Amino acid sequence: MPHAYRNPVSIHSGRGSLARLPSLLAGRRVALVTFPEARGLGLVDRLQALLGDALVTVIDDVRPNPDVAHLRDLYNTFWQSDAPCDAIVAVGGGSAIDTAKALMVGTANGQFDELVALLATGKPFVPASVKPLIAVPTTAGTGSEVTPWATIWDAGNQKKYSLHLDATWPEAAIVDPELMLSVPAGTTVSTGLDALSHALEAIWNVNANPVSDTFAVSAVRDIFDCLPALLKDLGNLDLRERMALAALKAGMAFSNTKTALAHSISYEMTLRHGLAHGIACSFTLPLVLEKAWARSPDRDRTLQLLFGADLATATQQLRAFLQGLGVKTEFADYGVADSEAAAMIARAMDGARGKNFIGTAALA
Fold it and tell me: pTM of the entire structure?
């Protein structure tokens, strides 16, 4: 059957690739969006030296899981600023890039509440204005540098919004593993497992295609081989580069498929139980693999490239991999009773991402 694959992001990767940033900006005035620790790491000074007068403002109050309560002031200040910019550079993990994607979409009145109202409809819209984005990940996991999606949380109302427009594809991505050398062990694991989840979710997906499979299978193999070794040698630049490329490939895979059941479950685990995203979307992977198995001969062939032909062996391999990284793999480990877990899975299957899962489609 026919397939289509599209990804418009210009990708620049490899050691030292951050140096390409000025040429990609071509003299445009820039707002830098980054994480608070970037100053202490010397990253803001480095970017200031690279960009000079082109850097007109720095937004470094990025918080994990960007929430409407915090984004509102950032957004309103950004769009009403007297220091206009032509583009945004996001430097950081998924939260920094998601924050930048929220900022890049301008509403008619420049007010964040208007953006939230548009997102609440769940329908695509054309922004009144858009700032081009160059995404520079400092963790190996998010894949957000090559996707058009951002998650905006509303913890107060126990909701999340998905920002996904044609306009929110980054213009370019710079994947420089040298920026990842200072990432601590816990974040290395969490973000690496986010990438693993992206890749597997792209495989057991109703939107999978041969190109996304190629990226996904390669990413899973690299993560299985590389992440445990990297955890024992965090300063190893060769391993950092391999993980950066694995996360990039996982991003390229799910940029066309979207995520599926494991991510759908994760949103509630984050909102209701405070679980970090990378763990929330990965601890259920063995369970979801069981639900994906034997649902589609085509998907089975791809999964068996990674796990072999026996389901019990496959799930044990995946569970052992996660546990070897210190990740517990049962709902009960996170204080979730069996009855609550069953209800959560049912709700997740009915969610937008859950409907991408081949197991959900088989039950329809």
Answer: 0.95
